[in-house]
Amino acid sequence: MNKLKYGFLPLFMSFFLLLVAKAQIPQLKYETRAVWLTTLSGMDWPKAKAVSAQGRERQKQELRDILDKYQQLHLNTVLLQTRVRGTMIYPSALEGWDPSLTGQAGKDPGYDPLQFAIEECHKRGMELHCWMVTIPSGNAKVHKQLGSKTVTKSHPQIAKRIKDYWYLDPGNPATKDYLASLCEEITRKYDIDGIHFDFIRYPENSADAVDRESFRKFGKGQDKASWRRNNITECVKAMYKTIKSIKPWVKVTCAPLGKYRDTDRFSSTGWNGYNKVFQESQKWVKEGYMDGLYPMLYYRGNHFYPFVHDWIENNNGRPVIPGLGIYFLHPSEGNWVLSDVQRQMNYSRSLGLGVAHYRSKFLTDNTKGLFDWCKKMFYPYPALTPPLSWIYTESPKLPTGLKITKNGSTNVLSWNALPDEQTHTYVTYNVYRSLASKVDINQPKNLIAARLMGTTFTDETAEGKAYNYVITAVNRYGIESQIQQIGSPVQTTSDSMKYNAGKLRFTEQFQAKSILISDIYGRSIKELPYSQEINVSELKPGSYSVTLIKKDGHKKVLGVFLK
Fold it and tell me: Is 156 helix (H, G, I), strand (E, B) or coil?
């Protein structure tokens, strides 16, 4: 677009936002629905300390409860803070335990929280991405508690202390190697779905203190700002290449500042990634070193909407997931009204974008009614995460052996396990459902379960409905297979009759003259001479009552069948 068009954008956007304020934008089949789950100081989790068996179980149950709430909202991506501030929430050979788990830095909680979180997320059909704080590396007090298991001891040449806080020095080439080693450890050790970089930038207002010595040694007369941006970019490249060399399906994303730089539409008012903290995130996606961006768009009005457009116009076909500052809904944070966030969510969806919520507590606590609105209005059905189609395009094989049985009022689906011979790992499964004879898998409302790890699914809402089902397989790159479809099983309320494929068959001999078929409202549909098997294929799909008319004229209601 040219500058003339940009000039009209604020006027158009004001009008458009009035339309999306209360409008219900149609749901998308592919949509990242993410939340940042903060472990720093236990802000979101954990509250209980794992200093005993009881404490460990309370800590685990806290996480289960949080994930259950995510599942109610059909969220599909959990960004779990894993490298907190030079500390970890898993048993690392490189850095010590974070104090949020036990109350003391370096203390083992007695279990592996990251492994536990991965398993619990996967049980609920959610991806887990390890959120890594990269450059900031913690305060002096924590490092003292960690002893020798800290970057300040193992790699003192890249650790710089500013007052009581430690940072990695992006200007030292060894920093990128160290960050890559952290990524390697996590990627090799865990079945993660992504690694998400935070603070992958220079510290604002402290850049000189961090890299003064490195610039003298490695700058070699370069422009300092360009040199600094290249330093951060080299860190990104090193981490990306390391992760992809091990598991190419692991998604690599980051959370850049919400404003990349000034645009023709609107000024960043001096606070942007490119100039302020030497962050070239749009370059990273253009050069293929990012699988998606979560820009921290914690603003309203013209500080939000014009910059969303800037991101999607420079995304190189990669997903952009606006990070929403939902914490501003809280009275002590900003006291935004709910419609501020609703407009941002509707607007993002109207552009084909998902969103990420910062942070978990303000979502699960139902701040200003956000949780209730999301559950009822915005996320009524599951959604799939966008596939990594620029990395891999081949779909997995078709699931086989699909069966369906009745268990009371529920339908139980089962199918054969399908190994993914292409990626040498497992596939997951999606379930679609519809009353239509052919299930349309492109209709978001037909998706009822996503990313199932097992080969069974129980539909507990199938009572009285003649559903048809489709199963698809999905590989680790998010590429979906062809469909396998099956219809609802026979359903009757009497053991004395069975319905299948347009035929109603009586399992015992009755002394009857005829049968009367009525609809669920008691209206007679047709009366047919009694025989052991009756053709009812001309009936429309629905529920029907069967009444025996005996030879003496008496009637007996036999039951109901579902066609």
Answer: helix
pLDDT digits (tens, 9 = 90+) for 67-92: 999 999 999 999 999 999 999 999 99
List the alpha helices (DSSP H) in 197-331. 207-218, 224-246, 273-276, 281-286, 305-312
Angstrom distances, CA of residue 344 to CA of 245, 303, 304, 317, 559 = 37, 12, 8, 21, 52
Cα–Cα distance measured from residue 373 to residue 346, given in angstroms and rounded to the nearest whole number = 12
Sheet holding 512-519, edge to edge: 524-529, 512-519, 543-550, 555-562
Q: What is the largest CA-CA distance in the chain?
A: 109
CA torsion, ordered 364, 368, 372, 373, to nearest 10 deg: -120
- Is residue 221 within 8 A of residue 296, CB to CB? The reply is no
- If we measure between CA atoms, which residue out of 285, 511, 460, 291 comes closest to residue 388? 291
Per residue, what are the HEC states of 402-443? CEEEEECCEEEEECCCCCECCCCECCEEEEEEECCCCCCCCC
User: What's the pLDDT at 13?
Assistant: 53
Which of 232, 340, 217, 348 shows the shortest CA–CA distance to 279? 232
Q: Are 272 and 299 in contact (CB under 8 A)?
A: no
Mean pLDDT calculated for residue range 316-327: 98
Looking at the DSSP bridge assignments, the partners of residue 500 are 503
Q: How many residues does the chain have?
A: 563
Pairwise CA distance, residues 231 & 474, whole Å? 37
- CA dihedral angle for residue 61, residue 65, residue 71, residue 73, rounded to 10 degrees: -160
Per mean pLDDT, which range of 1-15, 353-367, 457-471 is the poorest?
1-15
> Each residue of 114-134: pLDDT tens digit?
999 999 999 999 999 999 999
- Per the model's pLDDT, the better-predicted residue between 143 and 497 turns out to be 143
Tell me phi and psi for residue 109, to 5 degrees: -80, -5
Place of tokens 């339908």: 411
Specify burial of residue 261 (Cβ count, 10 A radius: 0-12, 13-18, 19+). Answer: middle
Nearest-CA neighbor of 196 among 131, 281, 278, 273?
131
Distance CA 177, CA 220 (A): 21
The C-alpha torsion from 370 through 375 and 376 to 381, rounded to 10°, is 140
- Find tokens 């199938």 and name the residue: 462
CB 233 within 8 A of CB 273: no
Can you tell me the distance from the alpha carbon of 268 to that of 258, in angstroms, rounded to the nearest whole number?
Answer: 9
Q: Which residue has the tokens 């959990």?
A: 78
CA–CA distance, 80 with 274 (Å, rounded to integer): 26
**Residue 375 clears pLDDT 60, i.e. is over it:** yes
C-alpha to C-alpha distances, 354 to 324, 336, 415, 491, nearest whole angstrom: 11, 21, 31, 40
Q: Which residues pair with 403 in a beta bridge?
A: 414
